[in-house]
Amino acid sequence: MVPTKQKEIHLANRPKGMPTNDDFEFVEQDIPTLEENQVLLRTLYLSVDPYMRGRMQDAKSYIAPFQLHKAIVGGGIAEVVESRSEKFKQGDIVTGSLKWAEYSRMSDQKVRKIDPASAPVTTHLGILGMTGLTAYFGLLDIGKPQPGETVVVSGAAGAVGSAVGQIAKIKGTRVVGIAGSDEKIAFLKEELGFDEAVNYKKETFAEDLANAVPNGVDVYFDNVGGPVTDEVFKLLNTNARIPLCGAISSYNKEEDLGPRLQSYMIKTSALMKGFTVGNYAADFENGSKQLAAWLQEGKLKYEETIVEGFDKTPDAFLDLFKGTNIGKLLVKVADPEYAKL
Amino acid sequence: MVPTKQKEIHLANRPKGMPTNDDFEFVEQDIPTLEENQVLLRTLYLSVDPYMRGRMQDAKSYIAPFQLHKAIVGGGIAEVVESRSEKFKQGDIVTGSLKWAEYSRMSDQKVRKIDPASAPVTTHLGILGMTGLTAYFGLLDIGKPQPGETVVVSGAAGAVGSAVGQIAKIKGTRVVGIAGSDEKIAFLKEELGFDEAVNYKKETFAEDLANAVPNGVDVYFDNVGGPVTDEVFKLLNTNARIPLCGAISSYNKEEDLGPRLQSYMIKTSALMKGFTVGNYAADFENGSKQLAAWLQEGKLKYEETIVEGFDKTPDAFLDLFKGTNIGKLLVKVADPEYAKL
């Protein structure tokens, strides 16, 4: 039964530097009644992702900023608990851009049904969702890895990075991951089949990285920016390609100075391209099919870190910047009431 | 008549920071005798170019470093004064990579004949040579300017930059040049037909630049790097393209720190690619023909700054970094003995 009140999480302040719990506010709201062609959703899982930090600033970007004192919005999985749409019935599982809320009312145009029998529903927030597609398109369209080349990926134990490395292996390259703990290094090499993995927190990082890429770097898939990236640039081969996916090391800095990297790119005729997964929307279906096929064939593995409880959503988001999680970081909000997962 | 002795200019030290006259040494040498398939060349003009600063360092790059206590080598125009080659006769005018020397002996495979009747010989070191081809291929292959877009070029009054802006105008774009003196600004707007030109040495540079690109920046052809580039990045449009040709602002710095620019590229899905003209060697002939056609049609203009006297070659090179010259900077070494220019 649907209650009459629910909680939402709103953006209380635009954070300066590292966000804190004070930047979020929990607000009690009435659960809205439905209009024609709308569904009422009970949130099951919420995705927390580094790019959301950017939306907390009031700055021009590829996606509009979050509004102050309005609900934060991100990827989620939900169950349809009431429907005034012909497209959905009670108990359907859907995914889409959801409010950080226990319940939400949405147009039936804004969510997509998923089949809980074909793969665990959480994969639609990870390896089969935006995360996997980000890895897939950035690596293949910009990185264009060729068999025998060396691919380096930073943030390698994260959701996108771990998919990038595995897809690069499928494409026949030598894959080197960069991550920040011995546990992550072991995960990359032993669980995901990376050829090498290097811990950027060690004093010997620059040397370790150089040793891990005896033939230089042909593709650098960058999730982090900052000093890690500075070291990779010294090792670029001629005609290197750099898909620029994220720069998590700088998201919480008001000012971020580093050595200018253009000279490395001139010397090597390197190509660097920023991208967001939305650039490839027209090809999502093909990408998702390929990822699902690799998943079924056992060529792609994924790891999830699931935090329990809606109230922990801000904490889970803040954890992203601590570098402790492995794989996709999710919040489990509720079990479904009608469906069986 | 060929003398028996001549002067060469050698690299005396690998400069740290800004080069000085002490980094060059003048060495007297015997003029070598010819072997089969060689020509003896009397140097007429030498080109001084910013990229040569890179060759003075002992660092891996797209081109081998100059050797210490050996002659510096760069683009030049010469007259054949003796020939043991069937391909060349006395009085032919040729271009190629020449020693900084009054005379040099070269294989007939390493120089190319030019026709002094079709265009002034110095254009083969500038608008019809590597300079023009650098502008042509970097702008068109990487920048891909579309009619109505805004193209910004830094180092705009230099040899490459002034060609870039004019080619961008031919392609129907709005062209904004960045340069460092009021004289250069006037040259760009009044002589070369740039839509706007902005002086980066003014305190109001950031504001002036923003005002000059009301529709943002679609293509940024970068010759300079550094703080000028930092301001341009703030104005990039979605899907901006950045041909990365040079970074003259950093060539004489041991360390060059600046704000990390990757976040701008992620937000705009921008593409940046380093290049050197040699990447396009297979297409030089087509490029040269197009440039020559535009020159004859009066669509391309060029400016030269010619320094007189072989002994002034190091000074001319050092002048490149003072930002005073307009257009292509050349040294006139001698008049021809047999040919008429």
UniProtKB/TrEMBL annotation, chains A, B:
Which residue windows does the record flag with biased composition (Basic and acidic residues)?
Answer: 1-11
The keyword tRNA-binding belongs to this UniProt entry's keyword annotation? no
Which Gene Ontology molecular-function terms are recorded?
oxidoreductase activity, acting on the CH-CH group of donors, NAD or NADP as acceptor
List the residue ranges of the region (Disordered): 1-21
Spell out the Pfam families in the cross-references.
Answer: ADH_N_2, ADH_zinc_N
Q: Describe the location of the Enoyl reductase (ER) domain by residue ranges.
A: 19-331
- What name does the UniProt record give this protein? Enoyl reductase (ER) domain-containing protein
Q: What is the lineage of its organism?
A: Bacteria, Bacillati, Bacillota, Bacilli, Bacillales
